[in-house]
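4.2 Preliminary Data

To establish feasibility before requesting continued support, the project team ran the inverse folding procedure on a target of 274 residues. The structure was first converted into the token representation described in Section 3, and no sequence information of any kind was made available to the design step. The complete token record follows.
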């Protein structure tokens, strides 16, 4: 129990705001995961605590049967056919039009939140392994700004510089480092930072690819931007088919020895769409 509490506390501290980053870093590892987590909680509350789908069924159906149909259609997936098109008679053709991403929206959001947070966690773990706490150095440097006496401020700055150089000396197998070796280590550290930033950008691109794969969007390269463009151009979902609110669901009803396939139409979807 103590181990889990310590691990959770370390995870929270790894994602807390610090002074060794900038606005873009905070937007990536802090604010974006918070917004995604809030959206995940809202959608999960509606899906698992409310009624995510309401079906328009045969008026002769009982209430228990209606609830069963709604649960079945929500789990089994639904499919979308435009109003101006006829419903295909072939069951395979209907399966090709299935929409199966509504149920996975909370999991996709929480996965994206983790993907935005993991680079920051890895970066801080690597920084901690280096033996030099950049956060403490930055905090100490910020504290020197409130020192009024110039001589005391200069002593504090010299102490920080000495701490940084001593740390480089401890990590070097050759004892004291000449200036050229110090510059080489600083360049290596800069390249390491550039590589991590490049991995962050690559992870952002992979997030878009993963999102397109989950939405099964072969028509658009960047699904979200294209959906936003369709909305700005006044193209409704009834034409584009993006996140349809009215879909169809096939439900088999057995009457004694006969099997009757009926198509029920879910009339309402309750989702927060992004």
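Position-by-position output of the design step:
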């Amino acid at each position: 129990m103590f181990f889990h509490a310590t691990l959770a506390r370390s995870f929270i501290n790894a994602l807390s705001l610090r002074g060794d980053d900038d606005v873009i870093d905070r937007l990536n590892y802090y604010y974006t995961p918070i917004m995604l987590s809030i959206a995940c909680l809202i959608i999960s509350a509606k899906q698992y605590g409310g009624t995510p789908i309401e079906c328009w069924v045969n008026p002769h159906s009982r209430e228990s049967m209606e609830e069963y149909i709604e649960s079945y259609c929500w789990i089994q997936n639904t499919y979308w056919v435009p109003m101006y098109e006829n419903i295909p008679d072939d069951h395979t053709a209907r399966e090709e039009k299935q929409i199966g991403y509504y149920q996975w929206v909370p999991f996709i959001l929480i996965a994206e939140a983790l993907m935005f947070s993991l680079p920051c966690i890895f970066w801080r773990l690597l920084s901690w392994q280096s033996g030099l706490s950049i956060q403490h150095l930055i905090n100490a440097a910020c504290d020197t700004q409130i020192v009024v006496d110039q001589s005391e401020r200069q002593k504090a700055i010299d102490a920080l510089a000495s701490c940084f150089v001593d740390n480089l000396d401890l990590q070097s197998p050759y004892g004291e480092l000449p200036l050229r070796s110090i510059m080489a280590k600083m360049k290596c550290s800069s390249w390491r930072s550039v590589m991590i930033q490049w991995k962050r950008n690559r992870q952002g691109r992979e997030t878009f690819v993963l999102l397109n794969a989950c939405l099964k969007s072969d028509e658009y390269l960047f699904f979200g931007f294209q959906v936003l463009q369709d909305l700005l151009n006044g193209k409704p979902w009834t034409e584009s088919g993006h996140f349809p609110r009215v879909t169809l669901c096939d439900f088999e009803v057995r009457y004694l020895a006969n099997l009757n396939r009926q198509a029920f139409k879910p009339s309402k979807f309750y989702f927060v769409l992004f």
